[in-house]
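chain below, 563 aa
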Amino acid sequence: METRTAFAPAGPAARREFDAIVVGGGHNGLTAGALLARAGLSVLVAERREIIGGCCVTEEIAPGCRASTTSYIASMLRPEVIRELELGRHGLRMVACEPAVQVALEDGSVLADWNDEDRTAAEIGRFSPADARAFRAASAELRRQAAALQPLLTRLPPDTRAGGWRGLAGLAGLGWALRGVRGRDLPGLTRLLTGSLGDFIDARFTSPQARALLLANNLYGKHGGPYQPGTLIGLVFHLLSGGEQEVQGFFGHVLGGMGAISGAIAAAGREHGMAVRTSAEVSQILVRGGRAAGVVLAGGEELAAPVVLSGADPKRTFLGLVEAAELPEEFRAAVAGIKMDGPCAKVNLVLDAEPQVTGMPADAGPARRALFTLPPEAAVADACYDQAKRGELAGAGELFVDCVVASNTDDSLAPPGRHVMTCFVQYVPYRLAGSTWDKERDVLGDRVLERIARFAPNVPGAVVARQVLTPADLEQAYGLTEGNIFHGDIRPDQLFHMRPVPGWARYATPVPGLYLCGAGAHPGGGVTGAPGYNAARRVLADARRDGRAGRAGRGGARLRSAR
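prediction:
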């Protein structure tokens, strides 16, 4: 749903002092705020846009037609968030994608990755029985690795600044979390963290159809072509559990669009007294006496709180909202060095005819017709990334385009005779060489349509509305520094105890009372709610430790304590 909240001058939001203020009403900020409100704190969420949700929104892109303009599939929304905030009771409805992934290929064939592994293997077997066997073996290995890494999602990374018994205790806790890892698993985990997706595919699969299916499940929005070290981890990210039932590798269509997730979280928070204020851009995080003291809004209004949580990315938070004198110089330098420059874009379309994908089975139902991915060959994708690094916009044949016809599974998104299709696109440069995105925006939109036309020829002629969101648009409209959808690239040196920067991976920051709760914190991007969930637990644990808990100390017991 499209969630709009008008600020009324009376009621909880009219207060000028709170126990906690959250900067940014994205789904992570809302999660942190809702959990703190549930624990008994007075909480205000300040959102600069006129709607809540950040990049987890549903917006009208043509009269009567609504799209998940940025994030578009729910794949790893944490079960803890769903259950503890009772999101189902607040209107959240998700339908499993079936198939989870589907590729349309140059040879006119369509290959699906079903939630039933036997069914997927049978489909691959049509092209290569050997690849079907390789798929089963690879799937079993990757699922084991995902299960081993799963406990780390909602666990505080070790404190790398701690020494003595405290440091040892943190390492011991990490060892306990990874107790399911056996010696035979270590080579696979090492390869997972350092290897390339392209090498993994080359070593195991021979048919172009199976290779395309594996390539299509790479980590979307990540830097690096398929042959770059560290790209293999994308396969396991998509096998982490999600949804209320903790299904491994869950992909879901959200009824009402992705904004329904943000709307449900906000409703849960409001039930416990959380105030949400939109059109309230935070221009400064106040620091007084060496600790967080509140925020200043763009209009000059000051709001006080001893705890501030930022859902903005690390660069926006620490280099833009906090005065330089309040942070150690080496910390600011480390934040400035975070790899960002987002490599992706979105193209959202309203069509007057459903896409007719070449090779789609005649008996395919609406759910199967709702999604198709157009991956180039691995070597072509690698070359496309190299072009993006040079600031060049690749040709239509080189772009990776992931298409979801959301209206096929949710007719509330468009009136009869209209179809809403969102297209995720990579690799594109944040900084164009010799041009600007204002000049190249329509060029990108045209190339995406040209790419789609090779596989669904009727689409270009069916377009009645088009929205192109370049990396620059993602930065300007949605507050994503350098257009990075993950608030910092997902790469081994920017994960877990290294996220956002070494020594500060446990949500607290060098400013006491200031916490990071967005995707720039562990475990990173995607619509998981995990950074917000973990940050709220850290705030409550610190309050109990410092004897400042009050009502939070009693209500906070309902949250699993931060470890």
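The longest helix spans residues 129-149. The two ends are 35 Å apart (CA to CA).
thats it, cya
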